[in-house]
Design a protein that fits this description.
261 residues, globular, 69% helix, 9 helices, aspartic-type endopeptidase activity
Length: 261
């Protein structure tokens, strides 16, 4: 089946999900309802009109300001919406018309929400992370059964346990509890794809998180005891492995002149 219609569908879906993620990012850390009250201006508290809630276009129509009081609206809102759409298209390009596509679209959405919340609040809320275990299992278990590949589920469970034990050990040295809870979820998704994705995702997370931390230490913008959100690095490493885990693992083994696993 041609993939061009798929890209259009997931792009529109991504815009809509991105709009919802803006609500999640803003309200979940404060334990606020995602439904009530409706979106409104934080300054004048007037409800946002339906036509101005259209992802990206609404912000452009308003020129980045409240229609009633002129309060600036952060450019982050349309960027989250557009970024979600772009990431959804990338995931669709990776998996095509497949049964596992919904599971990895969900991972992409969760990655965006958790990344923004961790940057803002230094937290990875249980209300997002814990239910995601069930969602991953519900979405990927039928795929393994239909494909006749129960080993994928066993591998996913093994990878989840392996990353949990690794991050639990690293918690001794100060790694956050939220990172420990997130690790098995990423391990499950990566393990379902293969052990090469697990290794690349875990290693890439530390590289992505470590290099900026070293740069900040050298520039003296942070100290050794300063807290730096690591969740975004874990999620970025996992997504990198989803898209290029096997090619990166193969390339690395070739550099070592070792046979592929």
């Amino acid at each position: 089946m041609p993939e061009t219609p798929l890209f259009g569908i997931v792009a529109l879906l991504g815009l809509a999900i991105g709009s919802f993620l803006n609500v999640v990012i803003h309200r979940v850390p404060d334990n606020k309802s995602l439904v009530h009250p409706g979106s409104r201006c934080p300054r004048c508290e007037n409800p946002i009109r339906a036509r101005h809630n259209v992802p990206v276009l609404g912000w452009l129509m308003l020129r980045g300001r409240c229609a009633d009081c002129g309060e600036p609206i952060s450019v982050r809102y349309p960027l989250v919406e557009a970024g979600t759409a772009a990431l959804f298209v990338a995931v669709a390009a990776r998996f095509g018309w497949s049964w596992e596509l919904p599971a990895y679209l969900y991972l992409a959405a969760v990655a965006i929400a958790l990344t923004m919340i961790d940057f803002d609040r230094m937290r990875l809320p249980n209300k997002i992370v814990i239910p995601s275990y069930g969602v991953a299992a519900v979405l990927l278990t039928p795929v393994s059964i239909l494909a006749g590949d129960p080993e994928a589920l066993l591998r996913a469970a093994g990878a989840a346990l392996a990353l949990y034990l690794l991050y639990r050990f690293l918690a001794i040295f100060g790694l956050g509890g939220g990172d420990v809870k997130l690790a098995p979820l990423l391990g499950f998704y990566l393990g379902w794809l293969g052990w090469d994705a697990v290794v690349v995702g875990a290693f890439a997370g530390f590289v992505i998180g470590g290099l900026p931390a070293i740069a900040l230490l050298i520039s003296r913008k942070v100290q050794l005891k300063s807290k730096i959100p690591f969740g975004p690095s874990m999620l970025a490493g996992a997504l990198l492995a989803v898209f290029a885990g096997t090619p990166l693992a193969t390339w690395y083994l070739e550099q070592l002149q070792l046979p592929p696993v």
